[in-house]
Amino acid sequence: MELSLEKKASSKESAQEMQVEVTKERKNNLLIACSSVLAAVCLFATQRFFPPDSLSLLRAMEAESTPLIAVQTNGKPTVVDFYADWCGYCKTMAPSMRTVEKEFAGRVNFVTVNGADPKNADLVYKFKVDGIPHIAFMDGEGYVETAFVGLVPKDVLEEEVDALAKHKALPYEGYDAFQGRPRSVFPLI
């Protein structure tokens, strides 16, 4: 009878130990689940409230720009965006410009140029850039239809690019740096 009591006691202790282990495992699983949810919320909040650095975005857009040789030969309309690292409006407009670029990808060339970089001086001269940001809208033959200098609202940018893509008259008239002179900027390179 004593053995049977010892077995029961041992089995009861073993069951309690198992229960403790199961409880620990549940707590660990709950902690992991809560940590995962918290990490996801933090990641979302970080991306929502601290979007990618606008200057990095501008540089990425410049690196991913349609090559100038393609702009001259593919017959598509082109938006050329001149920016500078120090330009606050350029940084403000970068996310909108990226959105519009993605929306019209394949139909319109987008070229982003650092207008303050000496290696781009020829382009700055050809496009008659005298203020940054300077956004030029060209037809497929290299004719500059208009240009905007300064902060451009996203909806204006979208309407302008949409008309350009559809080969329609542009709804907004911006800066005319050419004033009676030839508007073709080809060859670009």
Structural write-up:
The chain is α+β, with helices and mostly antiparallel strands and 189 residues long. It has 2 domains: 1-50; 54-165, Glutaredoxin (3-Layer(aba) Sandwich), CATH 3.40.30.10. The chain has helices spanning 2-49, 54-63, 68-73, 88-103, 121-126, 154-165, and strands at residues 78-83, 109-114, 134-138, 144-149. The chain has a 4-stranded mixed sheet with strand order 2-1-3-4. The model has no long low-confidence stretch (mean pLDDT 86). Keywords: Membrane, Transmembrane, Transmembrane helix. It comes from Fibrocapsa japonica. The chain crosses the membrane at residues 30-50. This is Thioredoxin domain-containing protein.
The secondary-structure class comes to alpha+beta
CATH topology of the largest domain: Glutaredoxin
Q: Summarize the helix and strand pattern as letters.
A: HHHEHEHEEH
Q: Report the β-strand fraction as a percent range.
A: 5-15%
Overall form: rod-shaped
Strand order of the largest sheet: 2-1-3-4
The CATH superfamily label of the largest domain reads: Glutaredoxin
Low-pLDDT stretches: none
Summarize the amount of helix as a percent range.
40-55%
- Average pLDDT, rounded to a whole number, is 86
Q: How far apart are the first and last residues' alpha carbons, in Å?
A: 101 Å
How many strands appear in the DSSP assignment?
4
Count of helical segments? 6
Q: What is the CATH-assigned architecture of the largest domain?
A: 3-Layer(aba) Sandwich
What is the CATH class name of the largest domain? Alpha Beta
Organism: Fibrocapsa japonica
Pfam families: Thioredoxin
Transmembrane segments: 30-50
Keywords: Membrane, Transmembrane, Transmembrane helix
